[in-house]
Amino acid sequence: MTLAERATSTSPFRASSTRRRPVLALGALLLAVPLAAVLDLVAGRALSIGETWQALTGGAVDPIAHHLVWRVRLPRVLVALGAGAGLGLAGLILQAALRNPLAAPEVTGVTPGAVLGAVAATGVGLADAASPATVVIAALAGGLGGVGVLWLLTGRARSDPAETAVYGVLVSAALGGLTAVTLLAVPGQLGSVVQWMVGTTEARTWEHWALLWPWTLGWAAVAWLTAGPLMLLRCGDQVAEAAGLVPARARGLVLLCAVALTAGAVAAVGALGFVGLVVPHAALALCGGDLRVALPGAALAGAVAVCGADAVAQLLSRAVTGWGAEHLSIPVGAVTTCVGAAVLLFVARRHAVEP
Amino acid sequence: MTRTALLATGLLAAAALCALCLGTPNIAPSRLTVLAPGGAADGLEAVVVRDVRLPRLLLALVAGACLGAAGLVLQETFRNPLAVPEMLGVSSGAALGVAAPLVLALTLPGWAHPILALAGAALGGATTLLAAGFGRSPSAVLLTGAAVAAALQSALLVLMVMADQLDLQVIFRYLMGSLSGRTWAAWRGVWPWLLATAPLLVLCAPMLAVLRLGDEDATALGLRVRHARLGALAVAVLLIAPVVAVCGPIAWVGFLAPHLARRLRPDADVVRWLPWTVVWGAVITVWADQAARLALKPVETPVGAWTALVGVPLGVALLRGLRTEPKGGPR
After folding, report:
1. What pLDDT is stored for residue A123 in this prediction?
2. What domains can you pick out in chain B, each with its CATH number?
């Protein structure tokens, strides 16, 4: 059995089971979102839980606490949720469309492209970290460029998932190298950009959120509407053609969705590692293989994952403050990477071993 | 055969001349005999040639040779022309082993760096090998390797977030692969390792030739495929780690050199490609280093940027060429 054939059977969950469980899982995820959000809201260093609650409910608190909660923490939580949802969705779309359980924004040139776009635009002075809109546009252009290069390279081989994946790895490596060269050319940017290359939710404002939510919501809606074609694509091109779908066209459309979602998320929080790789597997395991349920499931799971990781990162930062490292704040990307890499190796092992 | 040898010798000699004479200050080739170690002359020029340019030239040659040989070993082991050190998590692991103590401000003796690099490279490579089920499927190895490499890269980035601005510059330059400012001390840290690894490399060449036949045939011939892969990976790690410890993960040499060797001798086998890969690896790296030194004088660019500049388009071209050929091992 080839890698591609095994990729189509990603779900350990058989469709023969009751229809109720996926919906229940979706409901549980829906409940988990506010939980994660609240956890993230109260995890910060500066305020106690009571003060946070009072500021939220409009109680009498000092203006600083009010400002912190409403201007710093709330947008941070919302941006984490939005970016997580976008990355989870994008990952599931890529894995289904390329029929490869290891496909993810990081290894298909999407994330590296977006990073390069943002870094290059900042380096030459076109974009400015202070105005998120320009960074979003630059990241989107870069992400589209990255996947566009992949698209041009794969040429006639678009139906061969293994080859597409190899090209994706190559393109990602090349873009990463270009980013490094760009950073060497403008060393002044290095400190701020490195934060963003890991993925961070520090200092996100309402401006970021205002850009992120309409973008993510719109593309998520489009992605959900393509659930049917996507399921056919996951069965392989011959099946899709037999059902009357033009595989190349359908794949182009869903890939565009994935790129747009990733670019939005990357522009908002940077190159969060492993969310787009691991969350889809969790979503499929929880919600079953039906993409009409699994796609919203992946969005919710991604939101919960990133928000939870952000809470963990803030709690860790609190912990290191106790050891006397006041200026060090652990970026959320560090947490998602550590957890994601462990999960990934487990997943890869399950898929890569010949039966 | 002889023409290839002449070409390689000519390129190496020209690069050596370029490495010793050009730069700041420029030195006439006729004066090199006087300035060489043990020569008569003293002063600035002698110091520049003896203590700066000569060790750097030697390091470039040796680093290229090792990376090239390691690339060939890995490509043959996994039957995938793209299975290069940086795609399998080996280079990233080694870099992580070197960068971590730097950021965490641990002062270590010089001999510890190769050992840490070795541990990191072994960790990265072994993780990839295990997660990919010992490399039965060539493409699975590559994807798993990319994922492992991505994980290690993220770990490096997290380290960089913790570093202060000055360390950041140093680490970033190191991660691109750079030979600037390497002296005899670095050379002393590298050569004993390589001397120890060379016989292992020669011993594992015939094994690679058998692996090339495919897992079933190799097993039928009495080769334990899993053990062979682990052994080959160990040799590659031993070749890569000391080099990475000193000059950073110079990208794509491990891809370009074997590819060149195969292109120029398409009818040979692994055992004959190996020496040529060593030669071409040295040629590529030493010329890339000249570009790094002289292209944007007086600013030095990282060597890895130049090798990647050539390597990535070639990798793409190679993949496209593979598609028109029948499926099989690397050609």
Report:
1. 78
2. 65-298 (1.10.3470.10)
